[in-house]
Amino acid sequence: MGVVGNIRGVRMRRAVALSVAGLMAAPALVLGSGASAQAASCTTSTGPYQKQVEKYLHRTVDGKQSTADCKAIQSFQRTYGITPDIGYAGPITWRTMQTLTAQKAAGKNPNKAGKCPTNKGRIACVDLTRQLSWIQDGAKLKYGPVPIRSGRNGYETRTGAKKVYLRHIKHWSSLYHVWMPYSQFFDGGQAFHSVGLKMWNPPGSHGCVNMRDADAKAYWNLLKNGDDVYVYGRKPGT
């Protein structure tokens, strides 16, 4: 019995050693594949908005995709959280560039067109078309404008006059199973809150007005229950 036991012990030790070796080798294979995939991620395809994107990025406008064009587009996509980030001059990339241009043009006078009411005292304004939000006291700009990320197609942020009715500094969404820091609800389940994403990351939220952490915190400190919210416009692509 002792000899049989020794043989079994040797076999078990060999099996364990082979299993451990296999587990140690597997990550190396995965990493190698990932690195190769990442290196080949820059597309050679010419996108439908190639010329517009080339002009925006101050590239030679010839409507033809080059390696340098792809890298420039890819860099833009990664800066603004656009996915997939393969350097393709598609509608999402061009739409983001148009939105950024409109946001920059707003400057410190986002309510120049007078679309957000100025007769309600403290009010949070949300312009879905430019993906901008700001807080004003009457006609005086109090905070912003700041970029926001509103509802995607099929989950659009609802427009109209609303009021903050519920505030929860560390809200947990039981529907989407995510944290919603600095939540301030103004319409059903729709709220201002912070997210760990770029504001231009497609396709958008499930109806909430997503904000950068610092902006969501500033809104938390400036607003209270009963304050007015006004949402207007239409998000590009919805």
TrEMBL record:
UniProt keyword Manganese present: no
Keywords: Cell shape, Cell wall biogenesis/degradation, Peptidoglycan synthesis, Signal, Transferase
Pathway this chain belongs to: Cell wall biogenesis; peptidoglycan biosynthesis
Active site (catalytic residues): 193 (proton donor/acceptor), 208 (nucleophile)
Group of enzyme by EC: transferase
Entry's EC annotation: 2.-.-.-
4Fe-4S keyword on record: no
Leader sequence segment: 1-39
Entry's Gene Ontology molecular function annotations: transferase activity
Pfam families xrefs: YkuD (PF03734)
Domain (L,D-TPase catalytic) ranges: 121-232
Protein's UniProt name: L,D-transpeptidase
Biological source species: Streptomyces sp. 900116325
